[in-house]
Amino acid sequence: MKHRLRPVALAVFFLTTNALGATAEPLPRADPARQGFSAAGLQRIDRFFADEIARDRIPGAVVAIARQGRLVYYKAIGFQDKQAGTPMRLDSVFQLGSMTKPMVVVGALTLYEEGKLPLLSPLARYFPQFASTRVGLIDATNVRTEPMKHPITIQDLMRHTSGITYGRRGSTPIHKMWPTTSAAAAFQMNGAEFMDHVAKLPLLYQPGTTWDYGLSIDALGMVIEKVTGKTLGEALQERVWSKVGMPDTTFAAIAEKRGRIAQPLSNDPISGKRQSIRLLREAPKFECGGGCAFGTAGDYVRFGQMLLNGGVIDGQRVLSPRTVEFMTADHLGTHIKNNVAGTEPHRDGYGFGLGVMVRMQRGVAASNGSVGDYSWNGANGTSWWNDPKEQLVVVTMTVGPGEIRKYYREQMAALVYGAMER
Q1: Is the CATH number 3.40.710.10 carried by domain 2-98+230-418?
Q2: 243: part of which helix (H) or strand (E)?
Q3: What is the reported pLDDT for 23?
């Protein structure tokens, strides 16, 4: 089968990479060999994605790899819209899912640096309804509640230790009360309604005790709106996107960039069931910080490079170097239960910082990397990581909203580190 697929796959690859829309380079190019990459190793990335596309597992991808601030690999592969036959472009726009979250945290940290958002300030300072939020306790199949022992803090929101969860993350009676995802919540209610609703739900854990993935960054986005008096998109545009140079990153891609939005395959390649991404068809009721943004690989590789540079890019400073170090350090320690690997199965050995997971040891995890590398990914197939030790930024944009997305996260680490010779 591989020998029958390979010529077709390579034909698809070379066709689409030579039919790209013109776009400015997000970072300077460099000879991969001078940056420590082998040509043969990078060609394995070509072949991997060409084969995956030919097998109808994903429609296409845009991959950006930068080392020491220079691009060693930046290609569009396959189709932006397979059904329409539209080739992938370097400037194709992707629904970022949870890769929205690190950008929201960076935006919040700019307020922190201005003394406007202390990390230990309680969420109830900005939304008083959270002063009476209670913690759920499951007794057989019933839910009873108890008071919070400590208030939810801004730091809890940033590091997912607030007790706020996603309904889809479990099957307990408490999970069933919560919105399933950030996008689902944003389609059901506006921002004010969302905060009122969440404040009344029982927390899954006492704040500050357990890492659990959920709607925390959506609540943080609403705090940013409250502090700045602007919509989340306006605040991020002013504080992050305009400074980094991310012209295609937005919460309003449906109206502005419809012709460049990457589309999923009609059917999930694993289950065979129909699949779609609602955010590609209609706008939600609020700009959810947990997963509603759109962007390109070029924009996000600049965002990653800004962090790798210590909060600055092209002379535009977003955060101080010390704040970036603080953000990308582990914030769980030994007293907070670490469930990160429950969300990212190949991330054993990772802690969690502010908006990003952080590798704590060289081994254990099923994916290659270095101590101190940090990342977060998106539910619709996008992924990103920074490796400060190797001065590496890797962004992969695909459209795979099912379980297949986790496969590409692990494979990209194998392919990228496998292509490095020094």
Answers
A1: yes
A2: helix 242-244
A3: 59
User: How many residues belong to the chain?
Assistant: 422
Amino acid code (one letter) for 197: H
CA distance to 18, 74, 113, 238, per residue, from 149 (Å): 59, 49, 28, 37
State the Cα–Cα distance between residues 306 and 47, nearest whole angstrom: 30
Residue range(s) in the chain whose domain bears CATH number 3.40.710.10: 2-98+230-418, 106-228
Half-sphere exposure of 224 (CA within 13 A, CB side): 33
Q: 26: helix, coil or strand?
A: coil
- pLDDT tens, 222-257? 999 999 999 999 999 999 999 999 999 999 877 778
Residues in Cβ contact with 390 at an 8 Å cutoff, skipping those fewer than 6 apart: 67, 370, 420
Q: Does residue 7 come out as left (phi exceeding 0), alpha (psi in the -120 to 50 range) or beta?
A: alpha
Query: Which among 198, 213, 199, 203 is positioned nearest to 144, based on CA atoms?
Result: 203
Residue 263, token pair as written in the block: 């589309």
β-pair partners for 93: 261
Q: Distance between CA 277 and CA 289 in Å, rounded?
A: 17
Element (H, E) at 224: helix 216-228
* C-beta separation of 209 from 146 below 8 A: no
Tens of pLDDT, residue by residue over 138-189, are 887 789 999 999 999 999 999 999 999 999 999 999 999 999 999 999 999 9
DSSP state of 240: I
Backbone angles phi, psi at 102, to 5 degrees: -60, -35
CATH code that applies to domain 106-228: 3.40.710.10
